[in-house]
Write a structure and sequence with these properties.
The chain is an alpha/beta fold and 232 residues long. The protein has one domain: Alanine racemase (TIM Barrel), CATH 3.20.20. It contains 9 helices and 8 strands. An 8-stranded parallel beta sheet has the order 7-6-5-4-3-2-1-8. α6 links the parallel β5 and β6. It is globular. It starts with a helix and ends in a 5-residue tail after the last helix. 39% of the residues are buried. Bound molecules: pyridoxal-5'-phosphate. The site of pyridoxal-5'-phosphate has 14 residues, from β8 and α9.
Amino acid sequence: MNSEIISRYEAVKKRIEQACKKAGRNPGEITLVAVSKTKPDEDVLKLLEHGHFHFGENRAKALQDRMESVKNPSAVWHFIGNLQTNKIKYMVERVNWIQSIHKKKALKEVEKRASEINRVINVLIQVNISDEDQKSGCDPEQLEGMLKYAQDLKYTKVQGLMGMATFADDPETVRPEFKLLNNLRDKHLHLNRGSVDLKHLSMGMTNDLEVAIEEGSTMVRVGTAIFGERNY
Ligand SMILES: *Cc1c(COP(=O)(O)O)cnc(C)c1O
């Protein structure tokens, strides 16, 4: 069972390498975030032992529990889910990345809590690229205001954008959504100043990571292909 996790993980690394080769990119540019949601700690521990350090969870409580039980100082924790303001204080204490900020109010709260404990948090602004109402993220028109606001923050570093594509059997159909996120990044590069540096694009999951990499992704968030199907 354990070695199955590792071979699935290695297969995902291969997919990333192959996609990079096709796109003429360097695999070293891509961070793989292993999305361990609902899966047991032992799976996470196996990957850590194997030398993988980036992990993502989409629920605040699950991430808190995970960070508590997996006490590994090398682990890099990403929060990738819908974040309630009242949970930010607890996230900021331990988490390294919050990928799912989509409101100025959340930036403000991260800054407040991070400054209290003198800790720097990397954040990505999540943009709604899918046109589906249930997918969260700010509207593209709100990006400029958020980035301008973030320039002057001290403990909150905006490192790029995150997007979730529409679920589709054929990943080709979501290519325009990844292109949109990449274009939005380019369009806002002139706002790189102070605490804003739009170098990352977090896009691509189990089904569509190849297309995302071809369209400029620097972070892929992969759950199922590494950990197996989720029951809930
Ligand atoms: C679950 C999840 C993923 C991983 O999805 P898979 O299809 O299992 O790879 C990526 N990003 C977010 C925000 C998620 O919630």
